[in-house]
């Protein structure tokens, strides 16, 4: 089972869309499990403050290390073998190989920041695995954590019915390139025909055509993938 603990000040955001479709069914079947820890529970004052102004001045609020630290300790002491992840735009950019690596951990803890982020000392203290979902700023780590979890959960055995659909999609071939174009009924739509080869029943020919299309598509849309950039190392 893939066990996840989320640290957030918005516990009501979870499981969110992860309660629908494949991930939702898998949650019910206990293929993965989710524990949501409310950081606010570890606040030190009666107003349940979790943030404060930045030392040195500047815009926005920073999440306090004493509050976050106690919340993190609470989870890390309960799950000694957990992989501790902090969602942050400064992290390594998430990709399919990282998803594959993450599901190998029996337990993953994901810290979601808010406001202008967390006090740097929390990062220095725990050296979490810093993970970004792309070069843009979200208002919080929660949607980022859900994106990461969605990509992980569908790789767990028993979540997607046909395991070929996991191994034969974009970024998942041994060379990590894009998937070939796909077609379904009807054979003709608004004058556009399905490529003849796919109707031929010749599996060898179909497979060769798909390989070539994968390559052509990758070269046109994501040429950098052909240089192996997708195989970023996971640390
Ligand atoms: N001031 C920070 C941004 C803080 S955004 C900066 O300039 O880098 C608030 C929180 O949202 C962050 O702590 C992080 O947990 C989350 N977040 C925002 N964008 C993200 C992204 N692209 N990937 C992962 N987490 C992100």
Under CATH, the topology of the largest domain can be stated as Alpha/beta knot
CATH architecture descriptor text of the largest domain: 3-Layer(aba) Sandwich
Overall shape: it is: elongated
Average pLDDT number = 95
Distance between the termini: 22 Å
The small-molecule ligands in this entry are: S-adenosyl-L-homocysteine
Helix content: 25-40%
- Can you summarize the main beta sheet? 5 strands, parallel
Structural class: alpha/beta
What's the tally of helices? Answer: 7
Q: Mind explaining what this structure looks like?
A:
- There is one protein chain.
- This protein is of the alpha/beta class.
- It has two domains: 2-153, Alpha/beta knot; 170-234, tRNA(m1g37)methyltransferase, domain 2 (Trp Operon Repressor, Chain A), CATH 1.10.1270.20.
- It has seven helices and nine strands.
- It has helices at residues 21-28, 65-78, 96-102, 120-126, 141-153, 164-167, 203-221; strands spanning 2-8, 32-38, 51-52, 62-63, 83-93, 107-112, 129-132, 188-189, 192-193.
- It has a five-stranded parallel beta sheet with strand order 2-1-6-5-7. It has a two-stranded antiparallel ribbon with strand order 3-4.
- α1 (21-28) links the parallel β1 and β2.
- α3 packs across α5.
- It is elongated and about 70 Å long.
- The model is unreliable at 230-235 (pLDDT under 50).
- Bound molecules: S-adenosyl-L-homocysteine.
- S-adenosyl-L-homocysteine (SAH) is lined by residues 87-90, 112-114, 116-118, 132-134, 136-138, 140-141, 144.
- The site of S-adenosyl-L-homocysteine (SAH) has 19 residues, from β5 and α5.
């Amino acid at each position: 089972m893939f066990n996840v603990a989320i640290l957030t000040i918005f516990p009501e955001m979870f499981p969110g869309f992860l309660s629908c479709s494949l991930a939702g069914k898998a949650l019910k079947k206990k293929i993965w499990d989710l524990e949501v820890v409310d950081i606010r529970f570890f606040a030190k004052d009666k107003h349940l403050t979790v943030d404060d102004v930045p030392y040195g001045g500047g815009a926005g609020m920073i999440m306090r290390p004493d509050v976050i630290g106690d919340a993190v300790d609470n989870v890390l002491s309960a799950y000694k073998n957990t992989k501790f992840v902090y969602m942050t735009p400064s992290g390594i950019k998430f990709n399919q190989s990282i998803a594959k690596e993450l599901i190998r951990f029996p337990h993953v803890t994901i810290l979601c920041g808010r406001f202008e982020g967390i006090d740097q000392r929390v990062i220095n203290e725990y050296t979490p695995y810093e993970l970004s979902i792309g070069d843009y700023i979200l208002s919080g780590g929660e949607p980022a954590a859900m994106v990461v979890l969605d990509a992980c959960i569908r790789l767990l055995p028993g979540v997607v019915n046909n395991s070929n659909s996991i191994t034969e999609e974009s970024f998942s071939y041994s060379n990590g390139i894009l998937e070939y174009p796909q077609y379904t009924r009807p054979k003709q739509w608004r004058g556009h025909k399905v490529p003849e080869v796919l109707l031929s029943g010749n599996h060898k020919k179909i497979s060769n055509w798909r390989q070539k299309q994968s390559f052509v598509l990758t070269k046109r849309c994501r040429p950098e993938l052909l240089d192996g950039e997708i195989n970023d190392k996971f640390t």
